[in-house]
Design brief:
345 residues; mainly alpha; A middle domain of Talin 1; two-stranded antiparallel ribbon; 14 helices; 2 strands; globular
Length: 345
């Protein structure tokens, strides 16, 4: 029954698009419709990833989910660059990393309970985020006492982005080879979706998610103004959560079904991919629109590094539990309060 309801609710996506583009409903209504439409789309991405993982193993399955799930964030970021909302772009990207490490992973462990994570893969993702954070300090520190959007900082950010992309390609190649070697396909016939159908569903769901997320973000500023929130908070918390709807739903659903390793891969692969692939990709692609500097605020750098160190300490043995999930969620609550108190730059 639940699956039928979720499949039926996928119709919310075209309904939200029609309501916005054809009937021009209010921005508040648009926000609510788009938010509701993202939930079944997130479920579909999680469902397709789980079926794909039956053919590829949890590591590659998590990589696929991270790749498809982060596509809307790339689109959202470039649209914001085009509108000159540089603080919104930077806030949404750092908020995305932090929400994956603390919120998505924490919710997954809280729902899934006891289990084992791939300790090597988890700490590889933590390491990638820390490397990215250290490199982000170069343009960030220079922008703390001056204009964070100067051309020289954008040039430095482009160089750093190239370095991070090289690191991403090398680590991804190693990681996928490792997961392929670890994964042993079952001799039994795999029930459920074929790999082709799973990838097709992931593609369609990602495109729909991008379209719905676009209209939701377009209505966020009006929503935030009525709620009395700053642009930075909206970007670092609300936009980040909206952009990560796929990872939220996908990780929690597979964790609820007892697949803790896959849930961990989804959350942490996504965090690492945002840090060493998505952020550099946005910085480089922005040169076709308006050069973007990766000059993050002190509270953003502290949140990036602190979330990884905290999550690493909680999960240092590679064991999951509801208590550990609750600790990660509490850590995210602290970050949200810090983002709220930070205000705009």
């Amino acid at each position: 029954m639940t699956r039928k309801i979720l499949f039926g609710s996928l119709a919310l996506a075209p309904f939200a698009l029609i309501a916005h583009y054809v009937f021009h409903v209010s921005e508040t209504t648009t926000f609510v419709l788009a938010a509701l439409a993202l939930m079944p789309l997130a479920w579909l991405i999680g469902e397709a990833t789980e079926h794909a993982a039956e053919h590829t193993g949890p590591g590659i399955g998590g990589f696929l989910n991270a790749t498809f799930g982060n596509a809307p964030e790339l689109i959202i970021a470039l649209l914001a660059v085009n509108e000159g909302l540089t603080e919104v772009v930077r806030g949404s990207l750092t908020g995305s990393v932090v929400s994956n490490v603390l919120l998505v992973l924490g919710a997954s462990l809280a729902v899934g309970g006891r289990g084992l994570l791939d300790r090597f893969s988890s700490f590889l993702s933590f390491g990638l985020v820390l490397v990215a954070t250290a490199l982000f300090l170069v343009p960030s520190v220079a922008g703390w006492d001056g204009d964070p959007d100067t051309h020289s900082l954008a040039v430095a950010s482009a160089v750093i982005s190239v370095v991070l992309l090289v690191v991403y390609v090398a680590v991804t190649w190693f990681s996928l080879r490792r997961h392929r070697a670890l994964h042993v396909a079952s001799d039994e016939e795999i029930e459920g979706w074929s790999l082709g159908r799973s990838l097709g569903a992931l593609t369609v769901a990602t495109i729909a998610t991008a379209l719905v997320a676009e209209i939701l973000v377009g209505s966020l500023e009006a929503f935030a103004e009525k709620a009395g929130l700053t642009d930075f908070f909206v970007a670092a918390v609300i936009v980040a959560i909206v952009g990560n709807a796929a990872e939220h739903g996908g990780a929690v659903i597979v964790a609820f079904r007892g697949k803790i390793a896959l849930a961990g891969e989804i959350a942490l692969s996504s965090a690492a991919q945002v840090a060493v692939f998505l952020i550099p990709a946005v910085a480089l692609l922005s040169w076709f629109i308006e050069p973007l500097s990766l000059s993050f605020r002190p509270v953003e750098i502290a949140a990036l590094g602190g979330s990884v160190v905290f999550a690493g300490a909680v999960l240092h043995r590679g064991h999951s539990s509801r208590a550990r999930g609750a600790l990660l969620l509490a850590g995210y609550a602290v970050v949200v309060v810090a983002f709220y108190l930070a205000g705009d730059r």
